[in-house]
Amino acid sequence: MAGLLKSFANLQISCKFLHPRVEAITVPSRGRKHLNYWPRKRHPIWLTKQTRVQYNENLTADNARFIKEVVDTKYSNSELSLGIAGSLRASPLKVEPIEPKAEWQPSYRRTGVIAKKIGIYPLWLKNGKRVFTTLLQVLDNHVVRYIPPEDYKPILFKRKHKNNPRQEKLGCLVVGSDSCDPQKFTKEYCGLFTDSGVMPKRVLTRFRVSPEAALAPGTPLVAAHYKPGQIVDIRGKTIDRGFQGVCKRWGFKGGPASHGVTKTHRRPGNIGGGGEKGRVWPGTKMPGHMGNRMRIHKGAKILRINTKYNVLWIHGISIPGETNSFVSIYDTILPLRRLKESPSFPTYLPTADEPLPEELFCDELHPFTEPTIQFSEES
After folding, report:
1. Residue 257: which of 242, 246, 267 has the closest Cα?
2. Which tens digits make up the pLDDT trace of 22-76?
3. Residues ≥6 apart with Cβ < 8 Å to 246
4. Are 324 and 116 in contact (CB under 8 A)?
5. 155, 20 contact by CB (below 8 A)
6. How far apart are CA 239 and CA 191, in angstroms?
7. Whole-angstrom Cα distance, residue 86 to residue 79?
8. Cα–Cα nearest to 269, from 255, 250, 285, 280
9. Which residues pair with 123 in a beta bridge?
10. Helix, strand, coil % in the chain, rounded to nearest 5
11. For the stretch 245-254, what's the b/e string if a residue is b when 16 or more beta carbons lie within 10 angstroms of its beta carbon?
12. What DSSP string runs through 303-357?
């Protein structure tokens, strides 16, 4: 009996440290550096399971039609997120869009958007130079939840951020993208969208925002949230390349092709670390898993915006992720490229009185509607 009580007490202690509200820095464990090696292969126990097993429920045609009618009735305004600027004024909660609490200041932080990487396309500048751009579509974005700064307590793994006053002044805005059929998700996951009134989203992302830039649940986010010429940061997961050698992973030259070389054409060669130490130094470039890491591409410029289909043309082709993968876009944190003029704060709210044009171009980009060559009459 005593052994059973002792094991139960140990279980309570372990569950206490695994609670999401308890900061992980307080967990004393030997070899913690190796246990928390990033990326983690398992989801935390507090993460809500998203999808469920799709069983064959043998529904009749009438029952399937009835379930579809119930879903359409509950989410009657779900089609408003397809990009039609005139109908985005309506909210799934059937409330008026919130008005900004204060004017924009450079110290305020806005929310970001979730976009899908759909391909690469060339554009031409006014000086005739051709540039390659990456197309990102802001697909079906809605605000799911807002957590004020006093209630937002993230799990912090670094002690230096524990008592940071700047962190405590920012709230959290949960944004969802890509609406799907509620029958594909679990009951617990669908409960996250009860207060917002939108359909369950397949992708969720948290953005740290200032209290002045808070948005009501159910507010749609479109590509007009940004302006042409604005600098943004893009966060995504790189392409998973699997286990690769040093030539592909780090760009090594490799050994000679002939002259006595035997089976060491693409080997790394001597890695050093001999002599007194006699070990592999940390950070040595060696073969290993390549890709599948979260990376941030900073300082990307928006050259063109399509307000009808919510597409952004981003300068460059180094956006992390493969085609059809989702990325997070937010205002840049680079000190010399931050916003100097007032953006759409807290976000762009479309109105029927002042509709935006379908195509928006930055100043140095050549629009397709203008002539390519201009002839001047000689006097």
Report:
1. 267
2. 333 333 444 444 444 455 567 777 788 888 888 888 889 999 999 888 888 887 6
3. 252, 266, 267, 268, 285, 286, 287
4. yes
5. yes
6. 32
7. 12
8. 255
9. 131
10. 20, 25, 60
11. bbeebeeeee
12. EEEETTTTEEEEESS--SS-TT-EEEEEE---TTSS--S--SSS-----SSSPPP
**Least trusted range by pLDDT, from 80-84, 221-225, 291-295:** 80-84
Evaluate the omega torsion of the peptide bond into residue 154 and state whether it is cis, within 30 degrees of 0.
no
**140 and 179 in contact (C-beta within 8 Å)?**
yes
* One-letter amino acid of 167: Q
Instruction: Please state, as a whole number, how many other Cβ atoms lie within 10 Å of the Cβ of residue 211.
Output: 16
Is residue 177 within 8 A of residue 220, CB to CB? The reply is no
* Cα first-last separation, the chain: 108
Token pair recorded at residue 271: 């890695």
Both tokens of residue 75? 């989410």
Distance of CA 216 to the CA centre of its chain: 20
Report the Cα 250 to chain-centroid distance in Å. Answer: 26
Percent of the chain at pLDDT above 90? Answer: 45
In DSSP terms, 39 is beta-bridged to none
pLDDT of residue 81: 40
Please give the structure tokens belonging to residue 379.
């006097």
122 - beta bridge partners? 132
